């Protein structure tokens, strides 16, 4: 049987500064640090993306065409980068080791190259490999002129084929145009996201979140999949209508990208619940208001919170804010219905997640090195 041609979004997460780091660092701590970084990146990219191959200083992942949209793609990449930066910050604060590897790790960075195209699967040396022109192209795009043109810092490079397939509006979303000349393939149009600037914006943005300790009401569930998987099913229009039991969801996203400022119309027959997203922090939480189709209704403020569990699953919470005194009577009136609807919806959500888990094939994914965190547990002090 001939290999089946499939379409997918390809992503390579590549560690910048790897060669200098490995050549100037103690090998045992250096290996642990690289494994730790790869684990951090893949935790954010999985399960939206499947690991195709671990390539030493890079991870090659992909998502089939019907598994990701433009908003989820950008959220996954930026969340992976933010997780990497947070991890470096945490290590710096906790680490007392003075070896070269631990000193040099703060000079490491990550770049992402993203492309959309076709591939086939073939077995080589007992391992499943992706093959095809577009697999070659995404790897060729790693050797690019971005640093020369935009300066040396973290970035995500999206091919124009990816931008068009994912229906991303590059101008509206602040992507910079860039062309690459690739041997044999020729001129390739690309778009650049400055991840250093995205990280700065993330840290400076005002947070709007309903804390559990101050919430008026809380509904909670434990799910087996990790936070990115639960996030996708909770927030993506492709899944939202099913677990919310609405007829449809009409999404009006800011600049074409789901996030703060997005307004959703959850259609139920002739009525619609209007949701306004106030804060969007993949894959940690999203805060929004809901306006019920009831005369004189006041907006209900709540947060979806996603917390990773030690077993790899997710602790999911709906935290409802305390209403203003003038709105308390209305909230108490509608609360039994709101609670009943959400609890029924979360039962459906659990079934949806179980269906996805049963259909997924993660057994064939290659393994990545496991960090033993020797750089934290066995520090080497200079004498």
What this model shows, in words?
With 383 residues, the chain is of the alpha+beta class. It folds into two domains: 6-201, Nucleotide cyclase, GGDEF domain (Alpha-Beta Plaits), CATH 3.30.70; 205-359, START domain (Alpha-D-Glucose-1,6-Bisphosphate, Chain A, domain 4, 2-Layer Sandwich), CATH 3.30.530.20. Helices cover 36% and strands 31% of the residues. The chain is built from twelve helices and 15 strands. It has helices at residues 18-23, 27-45, 70-94, 100-104, 133-140, 146-150, 160-165, 195-204, 227-235, 237-244, 328-359, 374-377, and strands spanning 6-16, 50-54, 58-64, 109-124, 127-131, 155-159, 176-182, 186-194, 217-223, 248-252, 263-268, 271-281, 285-291, 300-308, 314-320. The strands form two sheets. Strands 1, 2, 3, 4, 5, 6, 7 and 8 form an eight-stranded mixed β-sheet that branches. Strands 9-15-14-13-12-11-10 form a seven-stranded antiparallel β-sheet, with helices on one face. Strand 2 (50-54) and strand 3 form a beta hairpin. It is globular and about 65 Å long. The mean pLDDT is 91.
| Secondary-structure class | alpha+beta
Which sheet architecture does the biggest sheet show? 8 strands, mixed
What fold name stands as the CATH topology of the largest domain?
A: Alpha-Beta Plaits
CATH class of the largest domain: Alpha Beta
